[in-house]
Amino acid sequence: MGGGRRRRIERSSSSIDRRYKRPCNSSERHRRNESRNRRARRRSWNKKNSDHFSDRSDRLQPASSSKSHVTGAGQTPSSSVAPSVARPVVQDDRDGHLIYQDGDIIQGRYEIVRTLGEGTFGKVVQVKDGTKGGRQFALKVIKNVSKYREAARLEINVLNKLQEKDPSGKFLVIQLLDNFDYHGHVCLLFELLGLSVFDFMKANNYQAYPMEQARYIAYQLCYAVKFMHDNRLTHTDLKPENILFLNSSYRVVEDGKKKRPLRIIDDARVRLIDLGSATFDHEHHSTIVSTRHYRAPEVILELGWSQPCDVWSIGCILFELYLGITLFQTHDNREHLAMMERILGTLPYRMCRKSKTKYFYHGRLDWNEKTQAGQYVRDNCKPLSRYMKSNDPEDVELFDIISEMLTYEPSQRITLGSALDHRYFKRLAPHLRLHESGASSNGSSTSSAAATTAAAAVVSAQAIVISGASDGNGEER
């Protein structure tokens, strides 16, 4: 035993003697030095990457093949890399967004298919649920930032309380299917829907929706928001971006008047989304709410707000569905108020008196029409009724309900219960009407009816179908 050990040591010593004591010329010494340097660099690279992957052991797991090869970001699968070594760690970018790639698996079951959208709150990704046969969902991944995490938890609370009142989702508010915390990122799982009302309009070159489709979309929106109001909740961020179609499939027709293709959505059923800013009556009310173009005057003037501010937003949305343009295209409070006065008439004295004086002088809006901004408002805004395309009864009815929704005084603004009984919605086909006891035709029959209604509204002597289209899901997100 001892002799064997001595022989091994002697062989090692002999090897060292041969390696370092054998005479050699300068070129051979240079080759050996280069060889040693290459080996040193390789050892350094291996150690660096070994540390890199061992530190990332909690990372999202990409979907594995039958050979269980797992790759990190930017790597290609290799049979020489053991799964336990190549599992990368969860990392965030500088803004707090989760860093991921298509194929990564979250929570051991949700495989990321693609990114659907991004906002200040985080990102929305399309995922496949490995435990449900690959069924597709939308996963909202909140930034790893404290204020967004808190907002997400408030949204979860709102969604859960609404689902207690409406477990089947018949009131058209999006349903929360799952929620969990993933390494500091609050994640919310929803059904996978189609494009938003805004994104579809954008892809359609901002062409307005046909009257029947606009009516049906508006009706569903009023129905969903009324449900929230009945439960002492204000959405506070109603806009076309937060109204999603169930499916984005469409047909293309040729508009005989404008001589250009027009997309017609096949199924105009929608869901109301993004309750992250929704506020119960008893909760703290932020001073400023709503996206600028849909913001009610009482919010701008900081007079306090409640459910009527949602009604104002819906009035702006109805106008946009009808014409394809926003009613109040501005980013300045004073200019916004000037536009309101140009379109809707003078603001009530009571609101002027109670608001901050910086916008008013002697009870009237402090606005100089001779400035560049004043000329812009004068040239681009006109009384509401002059925006009507025609004097047809349904156009008149639409602008009547819009004017009732855009009443300055919140206490005098129409409620959504009354709005749903307005004659504008009386023209809605009976099988598309919804009832609080349950959606009367909210199934395949409604889907086909909506498509039929859309076709009837547009495909006429002046509109010829020129092609079928793919589902368009996710286009121009």
From TrEMBL:
Single GO BP term: regulation of RNA splicing
Protein kinase domain residues: 110-425
Region (Disordered): 1-88
Superkingdom in the source lineage: Eukaryota
GO cellular component, one term: nucleus
Family of the protein in this entry: Belongs to the protein kinase superfamily. CMGC Ser/Thr protein kinase family. Lammer subfamily.
Database matches in SMART domains: S_TKc
UniProt name for this protein: Protein kinase domain-containing protein
Ranges of Polar residues composition bias in the record: 62-76
Ranges of compositional bias, category Basic residues: 29-46
Residue ranges, compositional bias (Low complexity): 77-88
Record keyword Kinase present: yes
Keywords associated with the record: ATP-binding, Kinase, Nucleotide-binding, Serine/threonine-protein kinase, Transferase
Record-listed ATP binding positions: 140
Stretches with biased composition (Basic and acidic residues): 48-59
